[in-house]
Amino acid sequence: MNSGPPMLEVRGLHAFYGQNQALHGVSFDIGEGHIRTLLGANGAGKTTVLRALSGMVRTNGDIRFDGRAIAGWATEDIVRLGIAHVPEGRGTFLRVSVEENLQLGAMTRRDKAGIAADIEQVYAHFPRLRERRRQQAGTLSGGEQQMLAVGRALMLRPRLMLLDEPSFGLAPLIVEELFGILREVNRETGVAMLVVEQNAALALELAEHAYLLETGHIVMDAPAAVIGADEGIRRAYLGY
Amino acid sequence: MELLLHQVMAGLATGGIYACMALAVVMIFQAIDHLNFAQGEMAMFSTFIAWQVMQWGQPYWVAFVAAVVLSFVGGVLIERVLFRPIHNAPVLSSLVAFIALFSILNSAAGYLWDYTIKTFPTPFGHKPLLAGLADTHEAGMIGVTLGLLGLLYLFFRGTRLGLAMRAAAANPESARLVGIRVGWMTALGWGMAASIGAVAGMLIAPVVFLEPNMMLGVLLYGFAGAVLGGLTSPGGAVLGGFAVGVIENVAGTFIPYVGRELKLTIALILIVAVLMVRPSGLFGRSVVSRV
Questions:
Q1: Tens of pLDDT along B89-118?
Q2: pTM of this prediction?
Q3: Which of B163, B290, B291 minimises the CB distance to A96?
């Protein structure tokens, strides 16, 4: 898209949980406005990549955002650069209302009018959240909580969204709706996305480029169409 | 009947003390998810600061403000210096740190101001109210406690900072992911709890008199009130504090053998009973969630 260095550059990323190493030198890029997906089996390290980017695990190696080295930064400072993370388990603030969850997403912003407009925008994408705006977020269904998690991330006006298994535990129809909205948001706001998914078929439809992760290594790095068309890879790694 | 009414009123009056303390206890619990066993000693120390400022010839309100502000700073410092380094450690480490803080503050107060009992003034006076059932200080204490509760409600429900503090306490990981500086929210919670404790101490001191051990019993009753009302509910804690005051007084008068000596036992029985029957307290929320 642009000729400068990509928005996000990851080089030789290692990650550790205590003594256990979860990533062994992972490298990839994401350009402005691109959607990329990270595929692989359970335990391959997909979630760890996202957690490493958000400063939630101990890492080695180079992570650059807009050319700035952010490895070792505190999570809250990384978020303030415009990297929104929709975590595994959705990270809902259960005891506060739906609308307060959205306001929390904009906690780093000061522009009151812009925040109000963005809450309206989220409700336009997810009308069901508007219906439940005063309701305690813990009472939402799984699908609604996932929408709330995406909505909360959008409230940051992010430049990069990290989505951890957005389809997890959701009914197929809801998943389709959610992925449609992700595509729409990407088109409208130009936010880049890195999507971790178990549901490879779905992710390959959404993303233009995919990385295949196996036990902490990237074993394949190719356009989504190429990976989706390769029956051998599909059978061996993606299970469909 | 008249004796009962009298005991209930007197109970409400002392309950005001416990309510104040319970409120401070709940504030810290919200911020760090632990009961602060040194809360009473922090309040006692703050009260001594106010006393010292008055000894230097300053008027009551100057001393009051100084104590509240210094306590806030002190609370933040305690979190940063003592509890920040161990925030990931097991509960037992925090417990030991609380006990250390308890004895440090207790001994320091004894060293600086000695153990003789000192009087502490009240801005409300001690004029009798309701035919001698209560006095103006007790009424003032109840009023200030309810006022504080109202302010806290407005702060936590109505401001962005309050919302951020609630989020940081309930779900620190998610809070970081929306850019909230969770460590500072915790420190702020400590500062606020220390300030509330200072107010509580300055209201309690005119009744129990000022000395390093003044808060021992009061803190237990405060815990009982907080547990009874629910550790997650500031309003519940205040109500619980009043209830403990009433129960203590009524039981002390009407149940044979309880008398003055076993009053403290009642607080402990109450804590155990509530924890067995309804661990979240009368008004505490147990989280509703669907998956």
A1: 888 888 899 999 999 999 999 999 999 999
A2: 0.85
A3: B163
